[in-house]
Specification:
22% helix, single chain, 3 helices, two-stranded antiparallel sheet, 90 residues, alpha+beta
C-alpha cells in the first residue's frame, strides 16, 4: 500500500485537528477568579449533563456529537465549591 499524499487526503475530504489540554501553574483559573487547588476526591455536589449537538462554524453538526447525543450518555461532574463558580459550570 502506498503512502497517502496531501492530494489524497484532499480528495477524500479529510479534515483533522488537534486539541491539547494542559494544566498551568497559576494561582487563579484562566477565565475566572477561582483558586487553583490540588485535585481532591472530596466534592460538594454533582452536576449531570447531556450532550446537545450544536451547529459548527461551518453550519454543520459534528457527527461525533450527534452520535453521543443519540446514546443519551450521562456526564457527571463532581464539583468542589472552593474551586468552581457558575462561570465554569456554564
Amino acid at each position: 500500500m502506498e503512502e497517502m499524499t496531501a492530494s489524497d487526503y484532499q480528495a477524500i475530504g479529510l479534515r483533522s485537528g488537534l486539541e491539547i489540554h494542559q494544566q498551568i501553574d497559576t494561582e487563579k483559573k484562566l477565565f475566572c477568579r477561582c483558586p487553583v487547588l490540588p485535585y481532591s476526591d472530596v466534592y460538594d455536589a454533582r452536576i449531570l449533563r447531556h450532550m446537545r449537538p450544536t451547529l459548527s462554524e461551518l453550519g454543520e453538526y459534528d457527527g461525533t456529537a450527534l452520535m453521543e447525543f443519540k446514546t443519551r450518555k450521562n456526564i457527571t461532574y463532581q464539583i468542589n465549591t472552593d474551586t468552581i463558580c457558575t462561570y465554569e459550570m456554564d
